[in-house]
Amino acid sequence: MVTGTTSTTNSNAATGSSIISSLGTGSGIDTNKLADQLTEANKVVQANRLTTRKTLLETQISDYGLLRSSLSKLETAAAALGSADTFNAKSLSIPDTKLLSITKLDAKAPAGAYQLKVEQVAQSQSLGSGTFSSMTDPIGKGTLTIRLGEWNAGLTGFAVDSTKTGATITIDDTNNSLTGLRDAINKANIGVAASIVGDGGSYRLLLTSKSGAKNEIEISATEDPGALGLAQFNFNETTRNLTQQQEGLDAKVRVNGLLVSRESNQVKDVIDGLEFDLFSASLTETVSITINEDKSVAEKAIRDFVTAYNTFKTEVEKLVGFDTEKKDYGSLHRDSLANNLMRGIRSTLSAAVPGLSGGFTSLSNLGIRTELDGSLKIVETEGNTGFRAAIDNNFAFVRDLFVPKTSSSVTNIEVTKFSAKSQPGNYDVVITQQPSKGKYTGAAIASSFPLDTTGKDYNFKVKLDGIESALISLPTGKTYASANELAAEIQSLVNLDTNIKAAKATVAVTLNAGALVFTSDAYGASSKVEISAISTDMADIGISLGAGTAGTNVGGTVNGEAAFGYGNVLLPALGSKAEGLSMTVQPGAGTGTITFSRGFAGAMTNLVNDYIKSSGLIKERETSVNKDIAKVEKDEEALNRRSEAYRARLMAQFQAMESIVRALNSTGDFLDGILDRLPFTAKSS
Length: 685
Description:
Mean pLDDT: 89
Number of domains: 6
Oligomer: single chain
């Protein structure tokens, strides 16, 4: 290693050599310049090699960035072809009308003509309380149980909607006021809006439900004995202390003559994929709507992809081939990664799409040809075939060529998901264990109907999917006309329970051979129903302590390999070709065949994504090239150190030479003096 001292010595020696040369006492040779030239000559070949190597590597890093950018553009164009919405695009025509407005048209909307007649718009039920002198005066303490359902015309009978959970509102010292009640109801977030309305110096509580006939409100108060008052908010079959301001109504619309009802004026599911808002009704006006297929969206996406690929090819050929502008090969000309990428893309463009049979299986079927220079060309017409004929006459085949597709040979096995690891193909599925839900079945109901709860104590606790409810009680003084009405009431109360709601568990209560059956809505081994506590009178309706039957997870094989089942979801084995496919299996399924095709777009985006993702192949190569650049820089540093040492050796040798030359010059001068003094050689005076 050349130290600082050596460098200083070399510098001093070089300075001394120059001085000696200028005084004419040395050899007369500029040894400093000569040392530089010899050092450079010794270094130049290796230095040029390292510089060339480093320049190539730095150019490759830049060109990998260009390659990634070009691939991203190609992937974007391919992704548009992989969207079902691209091929299902629709256009809409509708006349001017004040009855309704279209708010959304999805690609899934079926094409066709529809005649809409709005016969009734939906409205909300509204209940008003009596007057209060202050919003902060005490109103009583206890609980208000709010349930949703439908009142009859005379407000004498209420049918609870067991699909809606309602809420239990607690009024205590912290919220014992009209304001506190309003805030507690709104916080419950059950679709009932509470507000306080001023009325000539006094105040009323106004409750407004969501629109719809089955969103009407029932309220039952349970008062604390020492703080009465909540009964003034009762609105149930026994007591109605609130005043109905308006009833709840469903919207009624005729679609091509068929009458349908909806709770809201925002109609989202009458015509699949079409949403509209209702403003007013008319018994005379009919609104004609036409939904048409819009193939132009898909056609443009295909043409855009062809253009994107040709642009990509032109850009990338400058990197991997001969650049006619620079008259040289690109930096990635011999790069295996870039060349493998291009071969993979060309293969995808020309190969049949795996998982497809019948219809169109490759781009050539669509009239897209590969030219001699590797570019793509759309052949518009070719006899009765070509791109135009494919779009106009075989659009379904075109869609299947590009869009990922899953199918099943049986209706009770449905493919719901796939992943990047899922390989296209056909897979045989055999169900070896049926999925089931946990249930509890009571004994036959001993009591006759109508069933009056007056003087009875019907309460129980249920443990649903491992979550235990609080104590659930049937209302006292209520009469159930039928066992079905009782089942609906119990279902509503269980699903209303705070613990059950927090766990997002639900139960269905039905009748079977005169007995109540509690069935969890979840499938699988963790699905269970247990009656964990009861009052004595529950025996009248056939309910006793005990656990029911647990559910089962689905079991089966996919292509002969054991699959994993959880609930009613079946997942193929890890590492298998079908890995990543997810199937929903309904009870009764036996055997079937599922088919998966990633589509051309899916295959292309999968290929490209392997290269450009954050942990992809290009990133790995860039990391490797950066390491090579760092190694070249270390080699350059080592070369510079060796060159400095080499120059130091040369300067030491030149100094020794100069010393010899100076000694010889001194000897010559001495000999000249002797000759001048010898006889016969002395110079004449």
